[in-house]
Design brief:
The structure is a homodimer. Chain A has 8 helices and 12 strands. Chain A is of the alpha/beta class. In chain A, a hairpin with a 2-residue loop joins strand 8 and strand 9. Chain A binds a DNA duplex through helix 6 and helix 8.
Chain lengths: ~230, ~230
DNA sequence: TTACCTGTTAACTATCTTTTAACCAATGTT
DNA sequence: AACATTGGTTAAAAGATAGTTAACAGGTAA
C-alpha cells in the first residue's frame, strides 16, 4: 500500500468536521481532524501533513494566526481556508497570512476535492491508484479478493499475507527496507514484529514456490527485493 | 432514466445540510433541503417525498412535532431522525412520534446511505431493479415472496434471512466485508449486530445445507464469499 | 391474556491468525 | 577460524474471530 497523503483539517464544528473527514477518507486521504487551532498546531508539528484545510473561525487560535505560524515553518505546504464569510477583506487577510486558496462554505465535496487535487498536483503529490490485480508468473493475485490463483490451485490469503504481498507487488525490483515494510504493513516497527515478518516471508515464499523465476530475495541487513520475470 | 427518489432533508445547520445534500445528490437522489420545520412541512405537502430525514433540533417546528404531523398524513413513509443527542428519552420520544430509525450525529455518509437504502428496499422503492428470483443449485429463491423452494421442500424466510440471502445472491463469488454486509442489511455496523449476523449465517447455511456445491465461505477477519456451482 | 414469531444477546466452544519462542543456517567481521 | 549478527524455519502459545445453541425481549396475532 502506498503511503497515504496526510491532510490536516481544522474545523470547530464537530458534525461538519466529521462528515468532511469521512468524505476525504473515502477519497483515499489520511485525515487529522482538529477542533481548534491550538490542537491543529500541535498536530501540525507532530504529524507533518501534506496539505492544510483551516477553518477561519476557531476558538483558541483562529485560522489566520495558525496559517501564519505554519507558513513560518514551511513555505511550500498548501494552505486552504474554509470560511463562511465572503468578505473581500477577509480574503485579502487570508492570502496575506499565507493561504493558497479560499473556499467558501457551504461547498460541495466535489469542489473541495478538486481544489485539493490542484494543489497536490502542483506539488507533485498526486495519488496514484493501485491496480486491482497482479500477474506473478502463471499466478494471478487479486488483493481485493485475497486470492492467489494459478492453473492448478487457488488459495485465499490471510490479511497480513495479502497486505505484504501487495506491498511487494507495488514495488517490484526495488530494494525494500525492513523498516519500510514493517511501517506499511504493520504500521510500526519493533523487534518482534520484525520476526513476525520473517515468518510471513517464509509463507509467501512457500506460496510462490511453484513459480520459477519469481523470487523474494534477501538483502542481508537491509531488506528484500521482489522480482518477477 | 427512472424518476429519482425524493428525500426531504430538514437540517438547520446550513453548512452541514449543504454537504449532506451534496452527498445524497451524488448518490442519485433528489434532495429538498429545508432549514426549519415550518418550511419542511410546507415542502412535504408540496413535493410528496419518498423518505424524510429530520433533524431533531430545529427552529419553528422541532423534528418530533414535524414527524407526528407527517405520520398523520402518511403512515408508511420512512422517517429517519438525525440527532446529536444520545438520550434514551429522546429516542423513545422519537419512535413515539413515528420515527423508523434514529441516526446519531456525527454519522458517516456510508452509514446514512445504507440506512436509507434499507428503508427504501423495505418499501420496495429500490433504485436499481434486482432480478426477482435466483437459482441456487436445485433451489429457487424468490426474494419478493420470502420464499426458498426446492424439489422436496418449501420454506418462508424471515425478513433478515431474506435480506441477507438476497445480498449474497447479488454478489456471488465476491468477498463481502462484514462491515459492508452489516451496512447493507442492517444499516449500521456495531459489535452486537455483527454477532447477530453470525447467527443468521448459521441459519442460512442450514437452509442451504441440502445443496451440494453451494457454500458460504468464511474469510476470517474479513467477511464471507458466497459461491454457487 | 396467552401463545407464538422474530431478531438480539449471551454463553460456551471451535477454529483460525498472528505472535512469540526456540533452534538452526547464513552472512559478515575481527 | 571464531564470533556476533541477521534471517529462515518450525512449532507452540496467545489472541482474536466465528460457529452454535439456547435464552431472552419485544412485538403481533389468536
Amino acid at each position: 500500500m502506498q503511503k497515504k497523503i496526510k491532510l490536516l483539517l481544522a474545523e470547530d464544528d464537530l458534525q461538519l468536521g466529521f462528515i468532511i473527514r469521512d468524505n476525504l477518507e473515502e477519497a483515499g486521504f489520511e485525515v487529522i481532524n482538529c477542533p481548534d487551532g491550538e490542537q491543529a498546531w500541535e498536530y501540525y508539528q507532530k504529524k507533518d501533513p501534506d496539505l492544510c484545510l483551516l477553518d477561519v473561525n476557531m476558538p483558541y487560535k483562529d485560522g489566520f494566526t495558525l496559517a501564519r505560524k505554519i507558513r513560518q515553518k514551511n513555505d511550500v505546504i498548501p494552505i486552504l481556508f474554509l470560511t463562511a464569510k465572503s468578505l473581500e477583506e477577509d480574503k485579502l487577510k487570508g492570502f496575506a497570512a499565507g493561504a493558497d486558496d479560499y473556499i467558501l462554505k457551504p461547498f460541495s465535496m466535489k469542489e473541495l476535492l478538486s481544489r485539493i487535487q490542484v494543489f497536490l498536483r502542483r506539488n507533485k503529490m498526486l495519488i496514484k491508484e493501485a491496480p486491482d490485480s497482479y500477474r506473478i508468473g502463471n499466478t494471478v493475485f487479486v488483493p481485493a479478493e485475497f486470492k492467489l490463483a494459478g492453473p492448478d490451485r487457488e488459495l485465499t490469503l490471510t490479511l497480513r499475507e495479502k497486505e505484504l504481498l501487495e506491498f511487494l507487488c507495488q514495488h517490484p525490483d526495488k530494494v525494500l527496507k525492513r523498516e519500510d515494510i514493517l511501517l506499511h504493513v504493520w504500521g510500526k516497527n519493533d523487534f518482534f514484529l520484525g520476526r513476525s515478518m520473517d515468518v510471513f516471508m517464509t509463507r509467501l515464499r512457500k506460496h510462490l514456490a511453484i513459480e520459477a523465476g519469481i523470487s523474494i530475495e534477501t538483502i542481508h541487513g537491509i531488506g528484500y527485493r521482489f522480482t518477477t520475470v
